[in-house]
Amino acid sequence: MYISTRGNYAKIRSAEAIRLGMVPEGGLFVPEAVPALDRAEINRMAGQSYQQIAQTILKIFLDDFTSEEIDDVVSKSYQINNFDHPDIAPLVQIDSRTFILELWHGPTGAFKDMALQIMPRLLSHAVQKTGAGQEIIIPVATSGDTGKAALEGFRDVPGVKIIVFFPFGGVSRVQELQMITAAGNNVHVVAVKGNFDDCQTAVKELFADSRLNQVLAEHNMAFSSANSINWGRLVPQIIYYFWAYAQMQKKGEILPGEKINVVVPTGNFGNILAGFYAHLMGLPVHKFICASNENKVLTDVIRTGIYDRRREFFKTNSPSMDILISSNFERFLFEVNGHDGDKITKWFHQLHQEGYFQVDDHTKEKWQSLFISDYATGKETLAQIKETFEKTGYLLDPHTAVGLNVYEKYYRKTGDNTKTVIDATANPYKFNHAVWEALAGSRHGQDKDEFLILDELHRMTGFPIHRALKDLNKRMILHDTIVEKEELKETVKRILAL
Ligand SMILES: N[C@@H](CCOP(=O)(O)O)C(=O)O
Description:
The chain is about 45% helix and about 15% strand. The protein has a 6-stranded mixed β-sheet with strand order 3-4-14-9-10-13, with helices on both faces. Helix 17 packs across helix 18 and helix 19 (about 430-440) packs across helix 20 (about 450-460). By secondary structure, it is of the alpha/beta class. Helix 12 (about 270-280) links the parallel strand 9 (about 260-265) and strand 10. It starts with a strand and ends with a helix. The radius of gyration is 21 Å and the shape is globular.
């Protein structure tokens, strides 16, 4: 069963949680209890395919779906037409202790595809199961990657309309083009004069607006979410942590039961939280290393227990992590403080009203031996891309470079030789200007055409061009709406003709 992090909603089954997206009154759905996998089952995964591991994990969490339904969605989602690598998420070794988990082989070149290729199928089943029969409206807030992955995943899905809001000027040109050229008879893309937090806050307000939800219901519509606030987005992300562990075991890099480190560059805390759920299920993890860019609200809260968003918002060269209000930290706090919904309600109310909260020492102690946090500046990010390429021939995107940079700092400080998996969250060619600046050592490329740079980078590095980016500059612009951040609700009403 699924419960609300704020204790303000009845227990529901997974299909209902996925259909609703988030708790309408505020709060996120989480499993009432996290099921444990026994050691033998985790060891068996070393001989299994990505699809088999996916089936195991999904069946545990989505037990109101039939086994046939899960098998069907898994085989349709994680297949070679959707992912350009037979491993789905290949694990690449770059030195004796460091392994890069490439999560960007899906259709849009970002880790979001790992969940957004399967989630639309889960949502369609969820809608049928809950008998709601309404048209599902999915407002999405994105800092660049979720938007395109959701547009791709939900394109032409019957009974669904998707409206993506991205910060105008706050995403890379490739990310922007991927979204504004998105085809499909049910997709809308809107640029917002604001940052990601403005988009995400406004989207959450739509869910909480009872009058608007009533009007929607009168038109036989209902909101759901494709962001990681939806449990249906998060649960598929648990799979790849077990997969990575299984690959390490299979390659003989670790012994059964040996602990690994997991490094996650993260802004909305969803990706690292999925790893934490894997750990709660029994995945042997020594340290989770949470890596931020200059918007280091997560680094600070993990270190000090004080969540404070009253700070300057930086536009960085790892824009997908330009986030100060990290939705999934709420789920994390709920797990570590023993499901105390009252505390969560108090803290998140204070965050909303006053811009900060401080957790008690007891709560902070619960994560301090397991979680490490640090951040990389823009300059360090570029230097990491260059250094890694020169040393290993491996090309990092800026977000993955943030992860590796933070990990290297941790390694220098501790000498911890534990084998380490770093989530590679995006294809480097989604961020050509930053990668060019890193490798060429100058900002000259900033004024150059994005796709000329892409070609030059390709020539320089030999790194293959992701299929999603090949003819992106030749596609027609289909979405050109730009709105003020205060106009988001009106925009939704206009699109839906309410
Ligand atoms: N980094 C994300 C922000 C939204 O995160 P999500 O995991 O909640 O969808 C993005 O690229 O849009």
